[in-house]
Amino acid sequence: MKKSASTLTVITIMTLAHPMYSIANDNVVNVYSFRQAELITPLINEFTNKTGIKVNLSSGKADKLMQRLINDGDNSFADVLLTVDVARLEKAKRLNLIQPISSPLLQTNIPAALRDPDNFWFGLSLRARAIFYAKNQVNPNEITSYQDLTAKKWQGKICSRQGSHFYNVSLIASFIYRYGTSWTQNWVSNFVNNLAMRPNGGDRDQLRKVAKGECQVAIANSYYYGALSASNKESDRDVYQKVGIIFPKTATIGTHINISGAALTKSAKNKVNAIKFIEFLTTNKAQEIYANSNYEYPINPDMQTSQLLKSWGKLTADTNSVLQLTQYHPQAKQIIKRYSW
User: What distance in Å separates the CA atoms of residue 146 and residue 248, rounded to the nearest whole number?
Assistant: First the structure.
């Protein structure tokens, strides 16, 4: 979810301004979160009511939080890192910013394909990279896979944010892993040729363009669609009504997904509480809150999704690609740059 480009928003206690809160405390856990405060507050309240442990939340953009961890090193007050995209979690591991967790509960609640093999990070929710279409212009049966977007019939009819954004980099990385370099280069080349305009704006902007008739099809993350349905703006709710969603797949490969995830920081002073908090985020109650308030899919395939997400149709997620994405990011970026996406 987007945040305004401001300094870190600090909730509950001004911990960044008060280093004393970095010391160990039996009833405290300090959390860095990429989510806006209002989106994670229901989870925090539930956790505190259940355990009596107070959560000091610092909310900000994912890259800013990561840089803060790097800058502060062992002096960081953060116990838990909540961030998005497996590549960021892998980066935190590579930079020695996080440490492994030994937890049978996490092993049980999270499928192996959605957690680090060495237990440095754990997926918490799934985010689908879906296809969206103008209901009054497109027959959804015409699009069943990402490959369909390269057909000449869609020339000048597709909207997209810049390919260099990590949402799209991860999508292309998954293509390289699944289909190979040649197939992926061909896909990007044809997809770019079908764009209605030069890529600009974020995912929500692409859906608004589809609703306005500026294009007929767009790629975006599914939770933005959910956010539009509950927007305070009537114009955004109108966008939701005018735009439909498709979860592309083939006979053997599902929709590209990425994760939001959690990790125990290397500098954690409240380690026991931090692990309790991460474990709580994988429980049925927490996963239900994720689905209802953030429009994301539960990490546990046995969990029910919200009624809203069910109304979009069945998501067959390509979970088996998640652990492979990071290694293909450099190549994906090169291909995206080569074809000026």
Answer: 6
Burial of 118 by CB count in 10 Å (0-12 exposed, 13-18 middle, 19+ buried)?
Answer: exposed
The residue type found at 339 is Y
Q: Is the pTM of this model over 0.70?
A: yes
Overall residue count recorded for the chain in this entry = 341
Are 135 and 192 part of one and the same domain?
Answer: yes
Indicate the residue type of 336: I
Element at 132 (helix H, strand E) = strand 122-134
Q: Of 32, 39, 83, nearest to 258 (Cα)?
A: 83
In a shared domain, residues 168 and 280: no
CA atoms within 13 A on the CB side of 226: 23
Output the six-digit token pair for 84: 């998005």
Q: Indicate if 220 and 135 belong to the same structural domain.
A: yes
Distance (Å, whole) CA 339 – CA 341: 6
Burial of 32 (0-12, 13-18, 19+ CB in 10 A): buried
Residues 6+ apart with CB under 8 A from 310: none
Overall domain count for the chain: 2
For 88-136, write each residue's pLDDT tens digit.
999 999 999 999 999 999 999 999 999 999 999 999 999 999 999 999 9
H-helix or E-strand containing 131? strand 122-134
Tokens of 105: 């509960």
